[in-house]
What does this fold into?
Amino acid sequence: MRTALLVVLLAFSGVAAYWLGTRLAPGPEPAGTALRDPPIVGNAVLVDPSGRETTIREAAGGARVTLVFFGFTRCPDVCPITMARLAKLYRDVGEPDDVQVLMITVDPEHDTPEVIGRYAASFHPTFVGLSGSNAQVAVAARGFYVGFADVGGGQFTHTDVVAVVDREGRLRYVYGNDRVPRLEGDLARLRRAL
It folds into this structure.
């Protein structure tokens, strides 16, 4: 009798330990590249669609997670594809209030605040487009480790990543274009962690 009770108790303990382990174990790491010493990027000053100077943090409106993409409105491929992916992702996760998408132009001479604002909002009405002077855009891009160059004919080459910024304005993760589709699966965890 004692042996049977001991076997049942050990089996129950094993099941309980397994159940607790699966519930308490951390999930898989996000697909994006984590920055060990996240720089503060939220203080970069740009210009919002109304023409008012704002910081990235202010434009995020207190969001827990801000997804930032640098691009330009005349881009024929990467920019509209990335923005469409972000719009789909945002809709698929239920359009949460604590997530904000910002697009920052790398072509401020063409992409005035109004132009970039309309472009970003065309993907989702809550998406915000930011512009500014050449110097303002360059400072913001440098903070995000984004490079860009005018290649002529209204076209630019640029780093095509989506950056994840936390509520304090720190750059926490970077998702290369090949990893952006996996951002949807990571977003719930990022919203809890950041």
About this structure: The first strand starts at residue 33 and ends at 34.
